[in-house]
Amino acid sequence: MTQTHDMIVRRQFGEQAAAYVESSVHAGGEDLDWIEQVAARARPAHALDLGTGGGHVAYRLARQAGRVTASDLAGEMVAAVLATAEGKGLANVAGEIAPAEALPFADAAFDLLACRFSAHHWRDFEAGLREARRVLASGAPALFVDVVAPERPSLDMHLQAVELLRDPSHVRDYRVSEWIAALGRAGFEIRDLRSLRLRMDFPSWTARMRTSELHVAAIRSLQSLASADVAGHFALEADGSFTIDTVAIEAI
Ligand SMILES: C[S@@+](CC[C@H](N)C(=O)[O-])C[C@H]1O[C@@H](n2cnc3c(N)ncnc32)[C@H](O)[C@@H]1O
Question: Any idea what the CATH number is for the domain that residue 35 is in?
Answer without folding.
Answer: 3.40.50.150
